[in-house]
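Hi D.,

Good news: the full-assembly prediction came through. Inputs first.
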Amino acid sequence: MISVVRSLIALVAAVLVTSAAAQIELDYWHGFTGPDLPLMEALIAEFNAANPDVVVRGEPIPWGNIWQQLEPSVAAGRAPDVVAVNEDVVTGFILRGALAEMTPEALAAAGIDAGRFYEPLWETGMVDGAAYAVPVHSVMLVMYYNKDLFEAAGLDPESPPSTREEYLAAARALTRDTAGRAPGESGFDANNLASWAAGIPSPWMGGTIAYAVAAQNGVTFVEGADADFEPNFDSPEAVEAIEFLVSLVREHGVSPANATEGSEIDAFRQGQAAMNFNGVWMLGQYADQAGLNFGVAPFPQLGTERYATWGGSSHLAMPRQRNADPAKQEAAMRFIGWMTQAEQNLFWTAAGGLPTQSAVADAEGYASNPMTAVAEALDGTFVLTGFPFLAQFRGAWDAAFEAALLGDKSVERALSDGASEARSSIQDGLLSLP
Amino acid sequence: MATETARPKRGRHRSPSGPAWVPYLYLLPHAVLFLVFIVYPIGFGLWVSLHRWNILSDVQRFVGLDFYLRLVTPGSPQFTFFWKTMGNTALFTVLSVPALIFSALGLALLLEKPIAGRSVFRAIFFLPTILAVSVMGLLWRWMFENRTGLVNILLDLVPFTQQFPFLTNVGWAWIPIVVGTIWWTVGFNMILYGAALAAIPRVYYEAAAIDGAGAWARFRHITWPQLNPVTLFALVTTTIGSFQLFGQSHVITAGGPLRTTQSVMMYITEEAFTNFQFSSAAAMSVLFGLLLLLVTGVQFRLTLRDLGRGVR
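Then the structure:
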């Protein structure tokens, strides 16, 4: 009996030893915990099948928990081998020393070609000319619109508004108060709208919309490192952008006061709001809404200078290891390279994400994706990234927009208060960099 | 045993069950947990708050009381937001604690009467307590959503009332948070009061009835004083719980509008895990902990004095 147990133990040990020798095990943390999880797991399984010497273990963890755990895990020497990080935190992680640099040789060996990706996306993973993270997922602010309401208002349901003038014209045609009066008609009651164009909510989604319009006015929000990350979003261009959005509610009467992101989603689903500004991730919810005949279009150019929309992205990176194992690093780079190839990205877009590279946007297999309508906007995706303490800027920006929208402060005052809050917080953050 | 105690011993604390260190052995498990999970983190938090702490840095620069001084010097965002959210939290506590004590007492008094389905009602009032804060928050956000929430739909239907944007209105945004919190947690205090009511000796009421005391007099002079220890306990735990407001504001209003429903715990979390300013957040936590200790101390003194009078 004892000898049987002993030989079993020996056998198990032998299997363990040989598999350990033959296989490199990689831990991969990512936050794709929603409907996109099965697709991510299918990709991991496919990589594992194609690379018998590597076993990638994907661990879906909510994004916020990854941000909390990444640096302590690096400090404790227990970091995962690969991690997915988002555009708004990646620069901070790089500057605080949580992520390992990807040398040009390592990138080349893994088949990662920077030129393949949309430039702003690729730039997001870089600091001081060095690469740290490769784009794997991309989202943006888009416009959903109700085709039936467009037709009822005498608008062409196949050509949604794309400029400020077109938007205002369509918005007036789509807005009616409860007595059936249009904006501008005598007695029009903007406080009792029966149908309207699109609500401008607060704070985060409103801040996102305001960000896109200000970017269209040429605002860069925060200066670069050479100018000490000085916030510059109290400029006349930014004031113009916010004033326009506020005027949609107060002057034009085509957006209801006191909109929230949730109330606007409901109003769009129920056919009260003819348009809705939100992320590509809303597609599934709207598609499931019975009786909602809608289209997706690029976020219109409500600003005056250039085309821009808000974009976000996820990137694959390697956390810094205390005792880096070259074999593991090679395998991690191979995994990152494979995951970010056009073929895998095309498969991934089925979950609602946008192409990370033009090859996917142009691919035949992408033509049937409902998001093709917004693919043209990808070049104008203006990703908020590239400096540490982005949260400090974004918090101040959202608060400034909310104060202006709710009428708590004048637009100039809200933006100058916001800029001085951001200035103080960013300087404070810079002091705490190692 | 009697003979044991009668015989004089050298060790004063020598107990019949073994050597003097045995009781400490029984205390050890809790002491270890207490040291590891309470004392050590507090000490470490203090240390972090005195340095410019960065977990991945080799050197943690000592900055003394810099982060504390900033919290008492007007001008910085930290000063502005810490005290603003502190005020918000205090307002929430003032709004919710009396409501949570008196509505719990009211429910317990009603359910003390021998009515049909008493235990069913008890279960109904207690059940929300077991919900996760995210579930409760989503529910009440949905109830009070601007324009499309159930409350607003009802306001639209009822004559002479009209829709009201609770979530984007300074001040009124507290309504969904406070109402939701009462619905969510009143059951706990209700059970406490229910148990305490059942423990009041009936003879007191019989004696009072013979003396001709009315319902109010019986409540005022028997029930209320007899419930004093439970009221103290409920007051202290509910106050501490209210000061730790986090999830309800986080889910229902996200701290808005204009940061007016952001609690101090939410702001500390934002400073630590959104802004990655751990030392600043640690200093705020220490200051907040001290303030909470002060509030609890004052409460204890006031109510213990009352309690002493009640017993005498």
